[in-house]
Amino acid sequence: MRIAHFRINSIHRSGFTFLEIILVVTIIGILASIVVPRLVGRSTQAKVMATRAQMSTVKTALITFEMDLARFPTSSEGLQALVNRPSSVPDDDYRDGGYVDNLPKDAWGEPFIYKHPSNHGLKDFDLTSKGQDRQEGTEDDINNWDGIDTGSR
Ligand SMILES: [Ca+2]
């Protein structure tokens, strides 16, 4: 008897709240469709800004490296040269503790792509974050030559 009563009661309840749930879900859906893209947009923007800040740190480290050693790391030495002394660099010339503590990554946890010499003319090196899609050479890439007229495009 108790079980039967419980079942009827719960069916009745779920029937009663079903319309409410539909309404609430619909309202949440409408709100989410308005709010979520904005939040996502903002967080992407924040990540791009954080990535640019990280790139500035890398650039500063590279310039300091160049001041000490009169050259930039080669593409094959890579940004690793900022953390650990490349074998081609004399110990005396290399700054104690390196030029950055850790190899910086972009806001999506991916390493930066470093190229020296630059493929883009004016800059001493190319520095790229693959952006949100984590793919090189796509629209969302963040490059150190963005907004600079390199004369090559
Ligand atoms: Ca990309």
Structure characterization notes:
The protein has 153 residues and is mainly alpha-helical. It has one helix and three strands; from the N terminus they run αβββ. It has a three-stranded antiparallel β-sheet, covered by helices on one side. It is elongated, with a radius of gyration of 27 Å. The mean pLDDT is 87. The protein binds calcium ion. The site of calcium ion (CA) has 7 residues, from loops.
Spans of at least 5 consecutive residues with low confidence:
none
Our measurement of the CA-to-CA distance between the termini, rounded to an integer number of angstroms, reads 82 Å
Major beta-sheet overview: 3 strands, antiparallel
**Rg result:** 27 Å
> How many strands in all?
3
Compute the average pLDDT.
Answer: 87
Give me the CATH superfamily of the domain at 48-146. Glycoprotein, Type 4 Pilin
Q: What proportion of the residues form beta strands (DSSP E)?
A: 5-15%
Large-scale geometry: elongated
Number of helices: 1
Question: Order of strands across the widest beta sheet?
Answer: 1-2-3
CATH class of the domain at 48-146: Alpha Beta
SSE string, helices as H and strands as E:
HEEE
Helix content: 40-55%
The CATH topology label of the domain at 48-146 is Glycoprotein, Type 4 Pilin
Summing up helix and strand content along with how strands pair, one would put the structural category as mainly alpha
CATH architecture designation of the domain at 48-146:
2-Layer Sandwich
Q: Give the cofactors and ligands.
A: calcium ion
